[in-house]
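Assemble and predict.
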Amino acid sequence: MDFDARIDAVLRRMAKAGIESLIACSNGLQMPDRPDPVVHLSGYRSLGESFVLLRRDGASRLIVSPAADAERAAAWKGPHACIATDDLVGALTQELADCKTIAGHVAIVGIDAFPHLLAERLLAIHEGAILSFDDTFYGANGRKTAVEIGRARRAAAIAEQGLERLLVLARPGMRECDLAVELNCYMKSLGADDNFLMLCASPHNPAVMPSSSRKIERGDILVTELTPSYEGQFVQICRTVAVGPPLAGLQKKYDLVLSAMWAGIETIRPGIPISQVCAAIDRVLEAAGYAEYCRPPHMRRRGHGLGCGSVAPGDVAANNGTVLEEDMIFVVHPNQYLPETGYLMCGEPVRVTATGAETLSTRTAALAIITQ
Amino acid sequence: MRMKNTALLTGPYDWDPALVPLAEFEARLAAVRRVLAASEAAALLVHGHSVEHGALAYLTGFVPKLGSAFALVPRDGPIRILASGGPGMISSAKLLTWVEDVRPLSNLRNALGDWLGDMFRDGRPMLGLWGGNIMAQRPYLAVAAAIQPFGKMIDMDDQLDALRRHKSPREMELLREACRILAIACDAFERATLDGSGARSAALAAERAAFSNGAQDVRILASARDGGPPLPFDGPGDTRVAPLLACLAVRFAGYWAEGLVTVAAPSSGALARAEAGLTAMLREVRPGATSGDLLRAAAQHLPPYRFHPLVQFAFGNGIGLSFEEAPILDRDEKSRLEEDGVYTLRCGAMGEGSDNAVISAMVAVSGTGIDILWPAAEHTSSQKDSKGSR
């Protein structure tokens, strides 16, 4: 799998739907669990908003903002010719005029997350554009390329080193946010370019939350998701750390959540809907008497795809029928609230293989304990 | 300037009344409500998201870390905040603001509809929208659909952003502190570079220095080649670059400070021209000065160099709770500096090959003159050695 094959798959879907031109829109905010169609088609992470214009004959153009990014755009070695501009819609309009695209045969993807002022300008130009092509677009190919898989492995290694660093640094009296900042800087020093790093601590966490200024205390349960991005590919590991001797019963409850995670991971193989992974996790927890906590508001999803780019196969959720394909990458995280312990986190990034799942992390989740 | 966005804000963002007292927010709320009354708007909806939330932070202190957030502001009575994230995350969200009523934003259309239904039982009032211009398409359509049955939505960005352009004494203190941290970050960046570090390592040294001095956030762009424009770090490469052009931004208590620097540039003609241009710009700074005044002043000192592309069209802007606030100082003669405004002013020169430079200053404009917030006087222009400058 490479970008050319990915683009070919999109072109086939465009041809089938009678679409002459596809406009992929990015808002410039790359997130681990939100798709970015420009990154998916090009690998380019723009500073500002950007478009990929893809024509049915395969011709394409990457248009990025701001104009100050011109040097990076010019040096870009991706699958599309690239220009940088401060007038994104104007540049796109010119491109479309040059290729005499017929209105009504244009599909736009990613417009929901696009700034609405730009979106309205775009829609004014393309009245009647097809706006319902997103699922078809991402469904065309949710597999990661070999390069993206390599980046995911590197990101997983960085996440694990981040956890090791956490276990060295975290101490009672330290503010959550200071620990999070330190971990962020550390993972950057290892090559991460971004990080969706949630970390909080409490004797009874209702959920994992962004770090606050609260000081970590002995008796806390620290929960974290370390989500570094390496060259644009996010990977996530989820972990739980007892600060001081763990409460009686915590290990047993954590083992339960771990067994649910492994039940989910062992279910993974190409050809099954991802909802089966969620069901396997739920079964373990329901059998232990926690059915109530397997539904909203306690539970929304048991993991998710990892961008940026495509986040296929999407959420590990009961209502997601996306069929798994080889080389899809996602995180499986039961991340369960239990009334006795509060929120507990364990999660591993996995790659779907020809016969099952490969865990990208090398030291998988276990309840960690800070003794000092 | 566009900086690289970050997936999640991790620094210290909880509301600290010692830094921004409740009285400061009460004064802002009163001013906003006066504008609402004058505009005959019955209520106000304030929007922000994790990338841009200046209006929301101005009124509530709230910084949305996960997606969008809204403040629902009636003409009288308590404010409500709707924050992205599940119900279990609300305890964390409440720490970010003085507003007591913080609720999860599960379904925007329903949440807004409930609030509007409680407030507007008859008539078709006008509802102001602040921060709407930065809203993504989907939430914008949801807001419009929620408001439509109750009344008319009016865009109040221009009227209300005007309040933010004039910094209070407390805001000035916070901006000074942000500039102090910026200076520390720039020193660390320059020191690391001159000690032989690559651009990425120098940026990391600057980040650590800023965070350890109280910064909430740090963003850095830097040259990827000798004399190249400041760019985001795309990969793990850590090349030594000279001259190294960079843009550093630090945030303290919500307030941004920005600095362009050129380091490791011995006997650079471009740097000398950029410094002369910026000095000339600073001499023109006063209430009422236009962007044209500043541009012409700088332009006299540039030849034979050209304006650096980074500053060719926009060479400054207001700065505060947003990294880029009005006015944008570009070639449009209508942009004017105002009393009690704080601005970042940039100048840059482009010569042959790697002989390029960018520098900047942060200034506060008062009725009696200007106050250079950054760089400190001892660092400006000719008093700095030839290896680097800001």
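Chain A has a mean pLDDT of 94.
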